[in-house]
Design a protein that fits this description.
The chain has one domain (4-167): Rossmann fold (3-Layer(aba) Sandwich), CATH 3.40.50. The chain has helices at residues 30-36, 63-66, 71-93, 109-120, 151-167; strands at 4-6, 10-12, 18-27, 50-56, 99-104, 124-126. It has 168 residues and is of the alpha/beta class. Helix content is 38%, strand content 19%. The longest helix is centred in the middle third of the chain and has 23 residues, at 71-93. The strands form two sheets. Strands 2-3-4-5 form a four-stranded mixed beta sheet, sandwiched between helices. The chain has a two-stranded antiparallel sheet with strand order 1-6. Helix 1 (30-36) runs parallel beside helix 3 (71-93). It has five helices and six strands; from the N terminus they run E-E-E-H-E-H-H-E-H-E-H.
C-alpha cells in the first residue's frame, strides 16, 4: 500500500471559490503506479479539477556502469525511461478539466517537494513508488520519517513471521 500524506491541498481565491486541487505523485514504475493510483482518483462528478504533478524517480545507475557511461548518455537514458513511464500513466490521469505536469526527479525528494509546493501551492503527496525489500526509500516530505526498511526491517519481518508460526 502506498503511503499518502495530506497537507491542506485546496486552493481558494479571495471569494472562497475552489480553483484546483494539487496532487504531487512520485513514481518509479508505471505498472505499480497504475495499481495504486486508481484508488486515489476521486469520483468524476462533483469534484474540483486536479493538477497532477507526476514526478518520475528513475532507477539509479550502478557505480560500475556510471564509470563507463557519459553524463549525456545517462541523461538520454533517463529521458527515454521517463517517456516510456509517462506514456503509460498520463492517459489515465488526463481527464477533461484536469491538468497534468510531468518531470524527472533530481536531487533530494524533500527539496523537490518543497520547491513544487512553492511553485504550485499546497498539495497532497502520494508516494506511488514500488517498495523494494532491502532498500530504504528517500522520504518525499520532511514531516514523514524515512520508512524503516533495509536489513533490520527484513530481519524483523522474518522474526515476526517465525513468531506467528510458533504461535500456531
Amino acid at each position: 500500500m502506498a503511503a499518502v500524506w495530506t497537507v491542506s491541498y485546496r486552493i481558494y481565491l479571495r471569494d472562497s471559490t475552489l480553483v484546483m486541487d494539487n496532487v504531487i505523485v512520485y513514481l518509479d514504475e508505471a505498472a505499480h503506479a497504475l495499481t495504486v493510483l486508481p484508488s486515489m482518483l476521486p469520483a468524476a462528478q462533483a469534484r474540483a479539477p486536479i493538477r497532477w504533478i507526476v514526478v518520475g524517480c528513475a532507477p539509479r545507475v550502478t557505480h560500475h556502469v556510471s564509470k563507463w557511461v557519459t553524463h549525456s548518455a545517462r541523461q538520454n537514458w533517463r529521458d527515454k525511461w521517463a517517456d516510456k513511464v509517462f506514456s503509460q500513466l498520463l492517459p489515465v490521469l488526463q481527464v477533461p478539466g484536469d491538468e497534468v505536469v510531468s518531470q524527472i526527479a533530481s536531487g533530494p525528494l524533500c527539496d523537490l517537494t518543497d520547491a513544487l509546493m512553492r511553485q504550485y501551492g499546497a498539495a497532497r503527496v502520494p508516494d506511488a513508488r514500488r517498495p523494494k525489500l532491502g532498500n530504504t526509500r528517500q522520504p518525499v516530505l520532511r514531516q514523514s520519517a524515512a520508512q524503516a526498511q533495509g536489513l533490520l526491517a527484513y530481519a524483523a519481518m522474518v522474526a515476526g513471521s517465525g513468531m506467528l508460526l510458533a504461535a500456531d
